Amino acid sequence: MRPGRKRWIGLAVKTGLPAILVLIIAGMIYEKLGERRDRDRYPQIGRSVDIGGRTLNIYCSGEGGPSVIFDTFGHTAGYSWAAVQREVAKFSRACWYDRAAYGWSEPAPMPRTFKNVAEDLHALLHAAGVPAPYVLVGGGDAASHIRVYHGLYPNEVAAVVMVGANEVDSPQAAAVYPENAKGGWAREFGSFAPRIRAAACTVFPILARIGVIRLAAASRRPRITPSFGLTPEEQTELDSLSDNPTAERGSELCAREESMEQVKAAGNLGAVPLLVLAPEYDFHEPTSVTGSAEAAWNRYQLEKVQPELARLSTQGQLVVEKDGLTLISIVDAVRKVVTEIRAEGQK
Questions:
Q1: Cβ neighbours of residue 276 closer than 8 Å, sequence gap 6 or more
Q2: How high does pLDDT run on average in the chain?
Q3: CB 3.0-4.6 Å disulfide test: which of 37, 48, 109, 263 passes with 55?
């Protein structure tokens, strides 16, 4: 702690400020210093761009259009796309970025919705001078961010590539969630999860601002973050950038229900070229109850969810990868879309 801040806290104690107020002030200072350490733990890759009172980090390389933009979801920094982006940059302009609070981006007010994410990305791309139209690439809930982006800025989207995407429109009661498909709250608290999550989301922003969340996480190791093609050293860096006390303030979990409504309101993708990449799920029917639930869920994903995502566009295509989703399969999908857009532009 800087000497000036130590003197300030000492003065607060001497002048009779309540002990709880002193602790809150100390906690806020501790949190701000921690946020800076989280961003400075590794040398910044990319550049910070002001989007109106706070900055987001973006990294671009390569030449030519359309610009390919990689989006993330969950506890994932933009660096998760670094290896894929390097390959795509060999044939087109390609960028990954950090959502608010992740990687080298500054936190934003909570709670965060998918609309907030889309608006941030729009402001970032324009402030950074990345020309539209864009090929938007994302997996999981990032595909939902992209749907909301298209709903807000349809003229800026040249094409979409979804990679192992989640859905929000299919009736989820049609399949029973196995344990490996449930979120952490559902696994831990079962049917009580929504109420407990709501209570936690009420107090979390307050505790985060005064350093309590950071203090509680001081001895916890970062979770492993999904990625494609990173080296072990890069993966270690990604885990740190994705799962730290600052990054926890970027989660969209606390506003998930509102976000789902935003995705539905955004509608479909019209005639935008859409490529949906899905792994060939394992359908084996093991003898255990847990294994049977997983097999039923996997069949539901491939036979129901992924085809419905492909139908979001009149130009939607579903590509099932028998060997799973890999760096090569994703790069090939992006190259296919970029080539088609360029060919269409030459007509």
A1: 162, 165, 306, 309, 310, 316, 317, 318, 319
A2: 85
A3: 48
